[in-house]
Amino acid sequence: MVTGPNSGTFGSSRMHRLSDAVETSPTTDPLPNDEAEQPQSTRETAAKINRHEKGDLLTKDQHTWVDTQGTVSVAAQIAADKRMTIAREISAAIKRAVASHASIKLATSLQLLKRELARGHDILEHLKSEQDYLSIIVLAELALGETDWKQLSKDRLMLIKKVIEIGESQKVITYDDYNHAFRLLNAQGYLAGPVLDTVDDCNTIADE
Amino acid sequence: MPDPFLTPWMIATRSQMNKTNTFFADTTVVYYRLHSHTLLQEAVKQAVANGDVVLNNFVRGEYIRGYVAGLIELFTVIQAEKSVSDGFHVFNAESSKRPRKLANALQSTTVRFKGFEGSEDIKKTLRRLGEYIRTTLMKFDAAFPTRVRDPLGCDIGVMSFPQETYSEDQILDFYKELETTRDDPACDQCSFRKNQIDNLTAANIDLYSPAQQKMHASHKGYVSQAESIDKAVRSPKSEPTCWYCDRLGDTIIALSAPKDTIILTGDGQSFPVLAEILRKSLHLLPSLQTLREQRDAPG
Fold it and tell me: Is the pTM of this model over 0.90?
């Protein structure tokens, strides 16, 4: 099960209701139980969130892979085959990187892996039914980022492999698969990019 | 030895901090947690180790108006320049006009995207950047899942990207919605202003008078806020405008902080004074420079 702020289950154990406050998360907040008891402004905020959420709750996959009979179209099948091929190639590249972990070979393996991931753009960018898998490839690129190769952990590589493998056998990749991959990587903090080592002087200059 | 980060009114909150507390995070905390040096990330983690962190949608709106809007501008500059490196160059030159923490976060992002394989290919970089923009709010919501009510009802703070297969239109549609909202916000700014004026008057709190400004002249952030508060209070406008929220973010956040929370911030130029005047608890995170000095101190 995918859990996260958009699923309505994320952080439920941490739900914290303040005495004079109502939670108004744009992704998790339910309407207050008793609207009549809420001040006007609270009701308006909740209504706005509800309005904004309505579109979000409908997960849409902009695909043409299923026809009216519910079968996968020929064009989509061809696209899926191409995607499975590139997924296997990327997966193999990650496997080589894992095998060369903690040795100087890792630098070369990583460069080859990054090249495979970039090749994924070239192959998938025009395949409409494979856009969610291309999004997963971008997640893998973000998770690899420009992390120093000597500091790249085996765990990170293994998790990237896990999300890439989704594309190896599944006939159809949807937004839900992308969302699942995002949450797996984000939960480990692998999507946070490195930051410039600049002087942060929030304490010495005016905030915006 | 006294803690150099604690001023007298903060020492009063130290005893509260031993219990389970609720910290009300301002926008600097968001930048510290999501886009800053590991020392600052660790400082946030340590500060809230024995409590919960909440924020409201106004803070989320500030993040959208600053970081997310900035990234979308970068996206469109690359398109307009028809060159990734020219786009980054033009964007970074403009970024110097933004507040420092925001400029740092945006500059880090441009450096990051330059490092990817084939980053000179416009299509690849735009796709990566577009996907990254889309994930910013997902990451924000995962990092700060708990919200308290935003009494101002900021329309921008509740914006989000649709949960659907990626397309460039999502990025541009988001920006269009942002600009449309800015042109004609339908928030509760006017009633918020009136309520706050009434509350401050009833509590006999002087938030922005020339005497207060003089007394806290060394806190330039506060003085700048106080000058804008004066304008806002005297404003004859009967409709809300984002112009004030752009300039009064710190004040609005301090006023919005629920009374049983501790304001958590990295901004030492306005929040300490605002919290003192408003009689609210505050925990000020140390600057990166101070953290580095602590880390590098012998012994």
Answer: no
